[in-house]
Amino acid sequence: MHWKHVLVRGALLAGAWMASSCAPTGFADETLVATVRILASSSDPAYAQPGSSVDVQVLAFDGRPTAPEPMSIYWLPFLCEDPAEDAYYACFQQLGAGDGGVPDAGDGGAGSAGIGALRPGVDLTPFLPTGPSYQFQMPGDIVSRHTPIPGEPAPYGLGILFNVACAGHLELLQPDPSNDNPQQVPIGCFDSSENQLGADDWVLGFTRVYAFDADAGADGGPITNANPVISSIDVAGSPLSVALSPGTTQVYTTQTFTTSHCTADRRSDCPHIAIGPLVPQSSWEELDPVQLDVNGNPEHEEIWADFYSTFGQFTGDASLLYDSIKGYIGGPSVTDNQFLPPDQPGTGFIWIVVHDNRGGASWVTIPVQVN
Questions:
Q1: Which stretches of the chain drop beneath a pLDDT of 50?
Q2: How far apart are CA 352 and CA 164, in angstroms?
Q3: Phi-psi region for residue 216, left (φ > 0), alpha (ψ -120 to 50) or beta?
Q4: How many domains does the structure of the chain reveal?
Q5: What is the mean pLDDT of the chain?
Q6: Does any domain span residue 82?
């Protein structure tokens, strides 16, 4: 996969990637968070250099209406380094490698023994780091050890870090010798009665972090990629200010947004609320090494926003903010999504996740009060 065109940084491998409610088409409404979900992950820096420290943030939420056990965010404390063909599932073999010891959750992940050092059926969670953030050090030889890819404009390395949202505890699964699918997930989420939980109660994700040497850029400098900046949120034509969470560069919060519930006899008659992020043009970065379009103009990133909520309904699941060639799509009247509040009062959340197509991501959590 071309490192300049990674469409998602956090990929969901198992669990609740589909919401439990149904959209009008009969398919699940992916914008409605009604299960355990990982909505996004992001690293700072978005592109690393060999030997550098990397901070990873994950956005996860438990949207289940009833929760017998609370959801926790776990990190598998090893960095999967330069997997074969850059495939995340090639890391599963590393998960099963070990010397019989317990992985060290405090060593930053790189080079630690695999969690496969523990046998199936053992609760892994006492040995795993928890919380929405994790830090690791990119190995110094991550680029030099990566198998060269013909046609790539610059040598690179790849580290993959796994994160898990689980409403229970994690265990290694007994390998199934009859299943030769390389993508079979080697861990599962279990409740306190040792019942293996299903898609509503857990999800396994991963964060890709690309690394480049300090002189890999077209000008002999570093290749960089910044996570998009969110300046503010437009709500029905008015700005809602945002603030960065302490210690992060890509996690934003806002004050509570208050609105009224839908009182019309038919939901189709209820007024929608325009909502969307404002992202400055400085976030629309030029590709490095420079790529040119058919007219000879430098290409840039593509930037878009994904939308999620715990209640109500969006008319769409994503909005394009910047085209890779044409640039700025337009102001809020063009790029805002439309939110239909629920028909009952209550409290909930809206999340807006802003992505670029090189793996950068930032997000804002918006508390919502519906009167």
A1: 1-11, 14-26, 97-113
A2: 21
A3: alpha
A4: 2
A5: 87
A6: yes
